[in-house]
Amino acid sequence: MNLNQHIEDWLTTRKASFQSANRPFVTLAYAQGWGGSITTKQGQAVALSGADSRCLTHQLRSLHDGLLVGIETVLSDNPQLTVRDWPGENPQPIVLDTTLRMPETARLCRHPDKQCWILTTRSHSNTEYPGAEIISLEDTGTASVPLDSALQLLLARGIKSLMVEGGARVISAFLRAHLVDVVVLTVAPFLLGGYRAINDLGTNSLDELPCIDPLFTQRLGKDLIVWGDIQYGIRA
User: Angle, nearest 10°, between helix axes 3-17 and 51-62?
Assistant: First the structure.
């Protein structure tokens, strides 16, 4: 069995065993260099993954109902969030955009078969995007879209499995809120320095930080793939 099939079987099993009445199953998947950086500086797009790892990412996308990124990823990368390098259906594209900075020229507003969902806390009575639906959630005063409410809404809309790709603020927010179930991490063979994927998680205690357990690793092309369950409050 090759790595792609192995990870797909593992993920399918994990999704099947997940039970929650309040939110979808959440997979965190992103690429970083050695040292934990996802780019050389904030707002600059850097393609880290090799060709084989990109295929794996697109395979993972095809296994989820929804695919979520933050507005900073849209502004820096202008992603398509489609399945192009693997056979399968495109997941529902979702953007967290607290203050509605989504540009009308974004490729997500011209998705081939899905209307992008923009989750915001700002009133959109005078704002419209071609090819996108704006969904307002209650402003809780945290200067960000409330993740618990957002996930409840997504589940009610039929999103039973959600893949989160970034950027750093979104990755950190999901981990800080204990809302990630599994992770598939691509570690590319670069020493970037620069902007790290994970920032303050609200604790300095190793006993309270999220950890990957069990943890699996395997080479894929020149990259290292790391995957496993996320455990909270259990030291690895």
Answer: 30
Give pLDDT tens digits for 60-101. Answer: 999 999 999 999 999 999 999 999 989 999 999 999 999 999
Residue 126 per-residue DSSP state: T
Residue 125 backbone zone (phi > 0: left; psi -120 to 50: alpha; other: beta): alpha
Residue 16: how many other CB atoms lie within 10 Å: 9
Distance CA 166, CA 149 (A): 19
Exposed, middle or buried: residue 71 (CB in 10 Å: 0-12, 13-18, 19+)? buried
Task: Give the Cα separation of 109 and 131 in Å (integer).
Answer: 5
Please give the radius of gyration of the chain, using alpha carbons only, rounded to the nearest integer: 17
- Contact between residue 182 and residue 232 where contact means Cβ atoms under 8 Å apart: no
On the question of a cis peptide bond just before residue 214, with omega within 30 degrees of 0, the verdict is yes
Tokens of residue 58, six digits: 């697109």
Look up tokens 């402003």; give the residue: 139
pLDDT value at position 72? 94
d(CA 7, CA 11): 6
Q: Which domains does the chain have, with CATH numbers?
A: 3-231 (3.40.430.10)
pTM of the model: 0.93
Decide: helix, strand or coil at residue 206: coil
CB 63 within 8 A of CB 11: yes
d(CA 100, CA 120): 7
pLDDT for 235: 56
Q: Which residues of the chain have pLDDT under 50?
A: 236
d(CA 35, CA 176): 20
